[in-house]
Write a structure and sequence with these properties.
Length: 557
């Protein structure tokens, strides 16, 4: 239930703080005073698109805030908690519209998106105005309302659960089967496993193959190079390193006899000579032992070519192909062994399909009965609300898909004919805002207790009517207020008299600015406001007495 609304610098409304209670609250005032500003503010607080023209002239921004009581709204409280927007049971929504463009929103003091604002307020506020009808124009909401009216909750829940379970089983079956073409997938995996097991190597073996391939590719260069270096170290040339070191060692031996301290240098030369001889011998043996077999090179080259091709096809580095081989083998094994699991899933899916069919059949029967009952009730109420000869129907259309649907086997469309002899048309295509408001009122009254919205707002629901019909409209709104909170903007005294609370909207101008004021009326001022609505400019004793009788008849204090 809406408990408080705060508005700052919104259109011609400079500032207003309004408290709301249960039952029917009526809003009245002169034409053009700004009665619908409260409705516009609530629309913006429920996520409607903002316009910079809504900001009061000369102000930087418009500020709107509403507080709701959440008693008995477990789903809303759970939503707030799930979105980390809960605050000890409170529900405060705020929106700021900047004059330069753009707007921001908050829920319980935390920044929120407009999508979150809309999702939160859908079950809290339902607005029916000249141009804005929220839930009643949405086909999914119409189906939910029909289910609530027909007390179909249990079967609707079973249908939804069965459909979702069926989809889960079908998805698991498709995944386990390897997609739509299991045999083709198995054949492909077998081919890939055979290739990988033949060519993919562990990282160490792949590294060794790469090194061997490089060595075989450059065997000629390596042999010539190694032999040439061996010749430089220990060849027949006078410039060979081992000969130069030998001559140096012989000369140093003579010098050691003269100075023993040179022995360390002599030892180093002897070691160098030995290492040079070993290096020359090793290089000679390397050059002679190199494999110059072209066939071995071709074999290594072909293996590496296949490895790199597999790496590109599997989109993994060559060193990871061996691990990829294991994962492909596991997938193949699971597909080949899936027969028993697939059979079990098929049995479960068949059982689920049977359960869905039973629940859907029962739900369809309930919906058909509820649609007939709702159609008769709303049609009768339309006659009482000044739309004699009009008719209403909740039309059910079957779904073509054979797959279980969470919403059941049919969809609902509210259709209406406002005048005798005119065909039924979808409610969302009805042109007259006043008629649409009264049709919405008829639906809400017919479905009294079925709708989940805690606050219902009607803007100009009495447009184009008067007299006895207006009194009936007021009585229906009051009856609706016995079940939920109702806010109604009206210009008829017969409707205003039915309210449990009364707000008056007035406008004043000082030559520089125009301001709108909102006041909560007591018994005396309320009687005066009704007299104004009945008598216009001249308010006499009889008009005041009539207004008093209207209030007494409605049993409003």
């Amino acid at each position: 239930m809406l408990t408080h609304l705060s508005v700052r610098n919104f259109a011609v409304l400079e500032a207003a703080e309004v408290e709301f209670g249960p039952g029917l609250t009526v809003v009245t005032g002169e034409t053009g005073a700004g009665k619908s500003l409260l409705v516009d503010a609530l629309l913006l607080l429920t996520g409607a698109r903002a316009d910079t023209g809504m900001v009061r002239a000369g102000c930087a921004r418009a500020e709107l805030e509403a507080e709701f009581e959440l008693a008995g709204t477990g789903a809303t409280q759970a939503w707030l908690a799930a979105n980390a927007l809960d605050d000890e049971g409170a529900c405060r929504v705020r929106r700021v519209i900047a004059a330069e463009g753009g707007s921001r929103a908050w829920i319980n003091g935390r920044a929120a998106s407009l999508a979150q604002l809309t999702e939160l307020t859908v079950p809290l506020v339902e607005i029916h105005g000249q141009h804005e009808h929220q839930a009643l124009l949405d086909r999914a909401a119409q189906l939910r309302m029909l289910d609530a009216f027909g007390e179909c909750a249990d079967n609707a829940a079973r249908v939804r659960d069965c459909a979702l379970q069926f989809r889960t089983l079908a998805a698991r079956e498709l995944k386990l089967a390897g997609g739509e073409d299991r045999d083709a997938r198995i054949a492909l995996l077998r081919h890939e496993v055979a290739e990988l097991e033949r060519w993919a190597l562990p990282p160490a073996e792949l590294e060794e193959l790469t090194a061997r391939h490089k060595r075989l590719a450059n065997a000629g260069k390596l042999a010539d190079g190694a032999a040439g270096i061996a010749e430089l170290l220990d060849g027949d040339s006078e410039l060979a390193a081992t000969r130069a070191v030998g001559r140096a060692r012989a000369e140093l031996e003579r010098l050691v006899e003269l100075d023993p301290s040179l022995q360390a240098s002599l030892d180093l030369l002897e070691t160098a000579g030995i290492q040079l001889n070993e290096a020359a011998g090793s290089l000679s043996r390397y050059a002679q032992g190199l494999d110059l077999d072209p066939e071995r090179y071709a074999e290594a080259d072909a293996h590496l070519t296949v490895v790199h091709d597999l790496s590109r096809r599997h989109r993994v580095p060559a060193a990871e192909l061996h691990a990829r081989s294991a994962s492909v083998r596991e997938e193949l094994q699971s597909l080949e062994d899936a027969g028993d699991a697939l059979a079990k899933l098929a049995t479960q899916r068949k059982q689920c399909l049977g359960d869905y069919a039973a629940a859907a059949d029962a739900l369809t029967g309930q919906r058909v009965a509820a649609a007939k009952k709702l159609g008769k009730s709303v049609t009768a109420l339309m006659g009482e609300l000044g739309m004699a000869g009009g008719s209403f129907a909740a039309e059910l259309s079957p779904q073509a898909s054979a797959e279980p649907d969470p919403q059941g086997r049919e969809r609902c469309e509210f259709t209406v004919s406002a005048n005798p002899g005119m065909p039924l048309r979808p409610l969302r295509k009805v042109a007259s805002g006043g008629e649409l408001s009264r049709i919405a009122l008829a639906i809400e009254v017919a479905a009294l207790g079925s709708d989940t919205a805690g606050t219902m707002v009607f803007d100009e629901v009495d447009a184009g009517i008067g007299g006895a019909v207006a009194e009936v409209v007021g009585a229906k709104l009051r009856a609706l207020g016995s079940r939920c909170q109702v806010l109604c903007v009206t210009h008829l005294a017969q409707v205003a008299a039915q309210g449990h609370a009364h707000l008056s909207v007035s406008k004043s101008a000082d030559g520089k600015a125009t301001r709108t004021h909102i006041a909560t009326l007591d018994a005396k001022t309320r009687s005066e406001e009704l007299a104004r609505m009945l008598g216009g400019i001249e308010i006499d004793r009889e008009t005041r007495a009539h207004a008093k009788r209207m209030l007494e008849k409605a049993q409003v204090p």
